[in-house]
Amino acid sequence: MAIYPIRQFGDPVLRQRAREVENVDGALVRLVEDMFETMYDAPGVGLAAPQVGVERRLFVYDIGDGPNAVINPEIVESSGEWSYDEGCLSIPDLSWTVVRPNSVHLRGLSLEGETIDIEADELLARCFQHEMDHLDGILLVERLDEEQRKAAMSILRRRALDATLPSPL
Ligand code: ZN
């Protein structure tokens, strides 16, 4: 098993729509194991393949009930509204109160190739929507209102600038 570096805001891989997984093979199973390890190391409750530089439609999650992976997921239904302080491993140390649907019905495939149907609400539903966004190349900053987004972009621009300065000796 291996821990991947998590791709950070500004990395173009995070802006791509990931492609469907065609074969669930040994390489994919190893990728999922490495993604679990990367997610726990971070630590986070969800991690999408593009965040480790793999443009494929799958994500892993664990909101406290054990590790799970979903391949080629889709949200087939969503309802309600829920406000939650949401963060992202690709935009560390920042979070914003974001309103999204409270409940979603997620469908996808398990690592065994079986259809998974999950009715989720609150944190799990939020996790699914966040990871689905990653598969579509959408980052949390795009879910912010105008005021939040302006503040976020100014912090992120400052961070990018700091990163280009020479390190102190
Ligand atoms: Zn994220």
Structural description of this entry:
The structure is a single chain. The protein is α+β, with helices and mostly antiparallel strands. The chain has a single domain (12-164), classed as Peptide deformylase (Peptide Deformylase, Alpha-Beta Complex). It is 29% helix and 30% strand. It binds zinc ion (ZN). Zinc ion is lined by residues 88-90, 130, 134.
> In angstroms, what separates the terminal alpha carbons?
34 Å
The residue ranges in which pLDDT falls below 50 over 5 or more consecutive positions are none
What is the domain tally?
1
Q: Give the CATH superfamily.
A: Peptide deformylase
If helices are DSSP runs of H or I spanning 4 or more residues, what is the number of helices? 3
Q: How much β-strand is present in the residues?
A: 25-35%
Structural class: alpha+beta
Rg is 16 Å
Under CATH, the topology can be stated as: Peptide Deformylase
The set of bound ligands, ions and cofactors reads: zinc ion
Helical content band: 25-40%
Query: How do the strands of the widest beta sheet line up side by side?
Result: 1-2-3-6-7
The number of E-state strands comes to 7
- The global form is globular
Overall pLDDT, averaged?
95
